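Lecture notes, continued. The same structure-token format from the folding unit now serves as the input rather than the output. Read the line below as a description of shape only.
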């Protein structure tokens, strides 16, 4: 089993979010996938099983558990596949549903991958759960941006969206990991999508990921897709929209995620980025 290492949403091997990629996991059982992901130590690793022509079955594992969908590992997998087989369209069968991906070579020679998420949706966060979440984050209600209300958002995995009222609040990440992990396990939340709006189409994000045994994710494509759906469903951005999300800056692994929000309600959210081999 060959384990490739790519970092996604960056052109710099020192930036982005690293992912393990196994392009042929034929015959590898679930326990071995989990053990391999733990040994690799990245927030996620992707394991690919060849399926029908032009399609791939993909499973994603953090060091502690399997997750239904992972955006940065999808981008890394698509670029790794294109490095080996050439660019073009792919269809990934994930536990969250089918995810179409396209790869193309940019003018600078880099490979850009674009995924289209499953249908996004949102759900309210109960007052008691929000109070528990803010307490675990060591935030107060006064720290929030009232223009972006708390909401759980989904585009393959669930993420509570919590908007900071200032960039300095977002920069100061010091949370209670056991308390946040317990709440997220109970609510089936994958990461917490902490965001700060810089302009109508530019955002900064940080994503605690304690259920996966990771303090923070440097770039979270699944959360970016969920956030795009959140903005559309709540009417917080004119659609169609092209968004830029900056993540990983505060932890020294700068990442850039491009998000396309189509106008049609319920349509999948596009997430694009480059990836490079480590």
């Amino acid at each position: 089993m060959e384990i490739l290492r790519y970092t996604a949403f960056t052109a710099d091997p020192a930036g982005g979010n690293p992912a393990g990629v196994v392009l042929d996991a034929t015959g590898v059982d679930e326990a071995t996938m989990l053990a391999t992901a733990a040994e690799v130590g990245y927030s996620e690793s992707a394991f690919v099983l060849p399926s029908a022509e032009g399609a791939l079955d993909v499973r994603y594992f953090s060091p502690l558990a399997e997750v239904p969908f992972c955006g940065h590992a999808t981008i890394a997998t698509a670029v790794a596949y294109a490095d080996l087989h050439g660019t073009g369209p792919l269809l990934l069968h994930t536990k969250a549903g089918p995810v179409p991906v396209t790869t193309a070579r940019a003018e600078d020679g880099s490979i850009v991958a674009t995924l289209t998420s499953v249908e996004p949706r949102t759900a309210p966060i109960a007052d008691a759960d929000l109070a528990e979440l803010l307490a675990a984050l060591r935030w107060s209600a006064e720290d929030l941006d009232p223009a972006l209300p708390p909401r759980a958002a989904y585009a393959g995995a669930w993420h509570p969206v919590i908007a900071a009222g200032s960039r300095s609040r977002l920069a100061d990440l010091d949370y209670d990991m056991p308390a946040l992990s317990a709440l997220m396990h109970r609510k089936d939340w994958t990461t917490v999508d902490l965001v700060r709006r810089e302009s109508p189409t530019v955002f900064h994000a940080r994503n605690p990921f304690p259920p996966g045994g990771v303090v923070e994710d440097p770039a979270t494509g699944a959360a970016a897709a969920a956030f795009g759906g959140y903005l559309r469903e709540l009417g917080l951005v004119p659609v169609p929209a092209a968004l830029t999300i900056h993540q990983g800056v505060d932890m020294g692994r700068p990442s850039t995620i491009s998000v396309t929000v189509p106008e049609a309600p319920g349509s999948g959210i596009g997430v694009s980025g480059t990836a490079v081999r480590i």
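Point for the exam: The mean pLDDT is 97.
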